[in-house]
Amino acid sequence: MSSDRGAAAGSTATALRHVLGHLVTPLLMCIGMGLAYLGAFHAPEPHDLRVDVVGSGTSAQLLAQTLQDEADGALSVRTVPDRATAVEHLATQESYGAYLPGKHPEVLVASASSDTSATVVEKVFTKVAAEQGSPLKVTDTAPTADGDPTGQGIFFLLVAVSIGSYASVAVIGGAGAVLALRIRAVLAIAASLVVSLIGAVFAGPLFGLVDHGLGGLWAMAWLYAAGILMIGVGLHTFLKRWTTLGVMVLFVMLNFTSSGGIFRPELQPGFFGSLHSFWNGAGFVEGVRSHVYFGGHALGRHVLVLALWFVAGLALMGLAGLAESRRRRAAAGAAPAVPGAVAGSGGAAGVAAAVEGARAGRGRHVRAEGRTGVDEDEEVEEELEEAVGV
Fold first, then answer.
1. Which of 4, 185, 256, 308 is least surrounded by CB atoms within 10 angstroms?
2. Which SS3 state, helix, strand or coil, does residue 321 take?
């Protein structure tokens, strides 16, 4: 009886250590998500937000200089000679607003570039027009699709594609760990294709986030998803159960916050603003915006960002293949001899012992394999719960 109680206590202690060990991951995720999201979004304010004042006379120059001085670094104010130049700057995202002073003042914005930036620009020039005693006319030179009135639908599409991608990593890397790396690579490409098609359905026929350019959006969604899956599956070889935390740091904490989907880098702290120039989420969001709303301006640069992340995934898969090959060679070199197969033992007794030993070994292998399968299922379930807990 005492031995049974001791065994039960030992089993409970082992289970408790197992649970506490796995609790480390969600607690680190909590800390990381809080630092990332609150650090990036809790107090957005402009810094060097480019706006134009239209006019070449003294009054326009004086207004621009006054705004620049009063903004104290929040705005970067320039003068442009005419309305056409201001519209061109908005179309190429060289500026995020333009003010036309006069008897009937007007502000030009491009909400497709960023609804929050457009809102900041409107507030600034509404105050200027009010000081002059005139109502302000707001003209949107690049409005978003009817299905995405805030312009933030592309960001939430990014979230959906990202979750589908890194949750698939947990399955392919965990349950598929026994498969050859080339098979896992094929599964990753196939999963990215399915995830990107789901994203295209969301963006087009289901919610109407875009009213044209759906094929290009799908292509960028596939390249984005494939990059995440290749990197994640490659990382699983090295990180094992910490892969979920690793991909969440890369593709949630640093990715969503630097994508520009909610606030452009001009409204964020410098760290997240700097990531915007080369992180894959920003490549997707800005690439879709460029393709759908800005006539493909700078599209090549955004696609290049996505392609480089995909190439990084291929390189990481190559490194994973080398590491797994070394492990297999090391395991083969350390494999024990079959019990009973003693060199020079000959005779019926030696043969019988060898056969019996092989049977026993095979039985142990089957039991161990069954236990491993259960452990893998539990591990994959835990990874999936952590992966979709965003």
1. 4
2. helix
**DSSP assignments along 91-110, one per residue:** HTTS-S-EEE-SSS-EEEE-
Residue-by-residue DSSP string for 144-202: PPTT-TTS-HHHHHHHHHHHHHHHHHHHHHHTTTTS-HHHHHHHHHHHHHHHHHHHHHI
Domain ranges within the chain, ordered by starting residue: 49-140, 148-326
Q: Picking from 75-79, 227-231, 273-277, 333-337, which range would have the lowest pLDDT averaged per residue?
A: 333-337
CA distance 84 to 88: 6
Lookup: tokens for 323: 């590491």
DSSP 8-state secondary structure symbol assigned to residue 143:
P
- Locus of tokens 């019990």: 339
Token pair recorded at residue 118: 């457009």
d(CA 294, CA 49): 19
Cβ 244 vs Cβ 170: under 8 Å = yes
**For residue 312, which of 213, 234, 217 has the smallest C-alpha distance?**
234
For 215-226, the pLDDT digits (tens) are 999 999 999 999
Question: 3-class SS at 289?
Answer: helix
Task: State how far the Cα of 333 lies from the Cα of 356, in Å rounded to an integer.
Answer: 24
Residue with tokens 């002059």: 132
**pTM: predicted TM-score of the whole model, two decimal places:** 0.84
Q: What fold is seen in the domain 49-140?
A: D-Maltodextrin-Binding Protein; domain 2 (3.40.190)
Helix (H/G/I), strand (E/B), else coil: 333: helix
Task: Quote the mean pLDDT of the chain.
Answer: 87
Q: Cα(228)–Cα(379) distance, rounded to whole angstroms?
A: 20
Checking DSSP bridges between strand 49-54 and strand 98-100, what pairing results, if any? parallel
Residues 327 and 240 sit within 8 Å (Cβ to Cβ): no
Under DSSP, the state recorded for 212 is: S
pLDDT tens by residue, 105-157: 999 999 999 999 999 999 999 999 998 888 999 999 999 999 999 999 999 99
